[in-house]
Amino acid sequence: MKRLFDFLVSLFAIIILSIPMLLISLIVRKKMGSPVLFTQKRPGLKGKPFYIYKFRTMTNETDKNGDLLPNEERITKSGQSIRKLSLDELPQLFNVLKGDISLVGPRPLLMEYLPLYNHEQARRHDVRPGITGWAQVNGRNAINWEERFELDVWYVDNQSFFLDIKILFMTVIKVFKREDVNKDDNTTMEPFKGNKSNE
């Protein structure tokens, strides 16, 4: 039932949001050039990798050594606006349509985090990741990694269709209120480096 719901809602959303997504694509192309989409390998169900899609919000500027500049120096004004409204996440509707992710589930993080999770935290991969999740509507980037993983695992143990509907409804409210987009004044969260419970 969840997969059918994901497929139908994502297909409907893509159709309804096709014009806004086209406009965002044009803005990104004008401000940052090509490519319009940011793609990155992420772990999906059971840690199986897939490529996630997002609208670009940063330039590819590098320093004299060829290394990318810090995120806060590469993000553009238009990119900041796109992020505040979570519009950069819209291309992930195509990931949902493909079955890579669900509308609701633990957010797919970075591949390099996989060996850093303890056994309990790794259970977040027992379900398909999502565009939004229980952690996103209960703090998002304003909470620390341990709290975030606890919320992810809570979702794994308590998932239901009605909980998903509740999370989707809460997500809409969060987006319109622009709550908890970033932790403090950082452009993105600090990288996860493991925790004492891994030892």
Q: What average pLDDT do the residues reach?
A: 88
Widest β-sheet, arrangement of strands: 1-2
Point out poorly predicted stretches: 181-187
Gyration radius over CA: 17 Å
Oligomer: single chain
Largest sheet: 2 strands, antiparallel
Q: How much helix, percentage-wise, in residues?
A: 40-55%
The topology string of helices and strands comes to: HHEEHHHEHEHH
Count of helical regions: 8
Structural class comes to: mainly alpha
**Beta-strand segment tally:** 4
Shape: globular
| Fraction in beta strands | 5-15%
What's the end-to-end separation, in Å?
Answer: 39 Å
How would you characterize this protein structure?
There is one protein chain. The protein has 199 residues and is mainly α. Helix content is 42%, strand content 10%. It contains eight helices and four strands. The protein has helices at 2-16, 18-32, 71-74, 77-84, 92-98, 119-122, 145-158, 161-177; strands spanning 37-43, 49-55, 102-104, 130-132. It has a two-stranded antiparallel ribbon with strand order 1-2. β3 (102-104), α6 (119-122) and β4 (130-132) form a beta-alpha-beta unit. It is globular. It starts with a helix and ends in a 22-residue tail after the last helix. The model is unreliable at 181-187 (pLDDT under 50).
Secondary-structure map with pairings?
Elements: H1 2-16, H2 18-32, E1 37-43, E2 49-55, H3 71-74, H4 77-84, H5 92-98, E3 102-104, H6 119-122, E4 130-132, H7 145-158, H8 161-177
Parallel strand pairs: 3-4
Antiparallel strand pairs: 1-2
Helix pairs in contact: 1-5
